[in-house]
Amino acid sequence: MEIERVKGKIMEGQPGFPRQYGPSRSDHQPGIPFFPQETARDFVLIFLLTALLFFLSAFVTPFLGPARSPQISELIVPDWYLLFSWGLLKVADVFPQFVIGAGTPLKTDFNAAFWGDLLSGIPVIFLLILPFIDRGREARPAKSPVRSAFGVAFLLAWIFTASLYSIREVVAQRWQTPNGSPLINDTAMKWFFVIPPVLVGLTSYIGLRRLGYQPMRKWLFPYVAGLTAIVVVQAAGIFLIPGWLGPEVRPYVIQLGIFLLVLIVPMLVASVAVFALPESQARKWVVRSGVAAFVVFGALVVFFMDSGRPNHVAFTWVLSVLYPNMNTLVLMPMFAVLTAYLGVRRPYSTYEYLLNECYQCGKCHTVCPVTKVEDDALGGLNLVYNTFKKQHDGVPLWTCLACDACSAVCPLDIQYSDYILEERAKVHARMAADGGGKE
Description:
Elements: H1 2-7, H2 34-59, H3 83-91, E1 98-100, E2 108-110, H4 112-133, H5 145-166, H6 168-174, H7 186-191, H8 195-211, H9 217-240, H10 253-276, H11 279-304, H12 314-322, H13 326-344, H14 350-355, H15 363-367, H16 383-388, H17 395-399, H18 405-409, H19 416-433
Antiparallel strand pairs: 1-2
Helix pairs in contact: 3-4, 3-5, 5-8, 8-13, 9-10, 9-13, 10-11, 10-12, 10-13, 11-13
């Protein structure tokens, strides 16, 4: 009878049962007006903080100390939170430099300083325009995979790589081969600006789409197979192209081949698994190959770094080949296996995914016929939410009528009866596995 009353809109307009949602609703929305109440409070706080800053700067003068000695360090860098901007200024010389409007008042010099300032402003500009372009109510990353993946790749990975490039002198000084040459050249670090953020962004997008129950096989195979092809071609070029390795690494070509084999085999297994196997089997093969490669790689590192062996320096020469190509030979195998796993892994319960949208409006509790007769359900804010959190010891699992009255009024279309039937089926399956529930 309740579901019929809901379908007939008999309860519409009653207290606690509005039918309008969002900022365009015509009924009264309680709250405090933004102007002048909120704006006045914000301005008072701003003026108070500004007064405190003036007071501290006038009466508590910081001690600067003596001037820096040039013998201490030749590298001057800003504070850690500005390292990304310092790195963007350094990498700006890769952009074309030209002048527009020479000899006129509108002369614009597109030099390294201009490109550096433009790159440094991009993260700040993105943060400023984000509140204007993200006006939706949904805030879960799985519901907005493009925006979330772009944020992870751009604001996290790109800022990290820029910060690392800002101290490239320290990297070149600390990471050196036995003959004194830098282990990672400047070209590899400049590509570090592009390849890792792109890999992080694509991997995040695939993982978030899979979290939202989207089939990702059509994305997985081209991505994983493409990374595998890049690594295989580059590894083949190292051995086949004359002069790639250099005379110092030639004596350790066997060790280098073993390391490259450990990196390539998991990628090949992941490519074949996501293309030819069902998701459950593909997931197992991807996990097995990834774990096995990690264990073998760690064992090889320990073996080659053992100073008691005569060829322990071989590992250093292997790194001298791998690290200049770290964006491809080191990072791409890791991202290929990780993306294959994220793309075929089994997300959590469908109902759990949907229930994360619940904001406890209480409409399901209002319309539920069980709450009118079940003492244990009375007093709970939301029958659906409380059942999921197991705050009723499973009682609503068997008292629910599966009438779908709650689903009919839910503004987010959460199908509560599907969850009830699924949980009951699990209980019956466990009883059958235990011998039909008999003692």
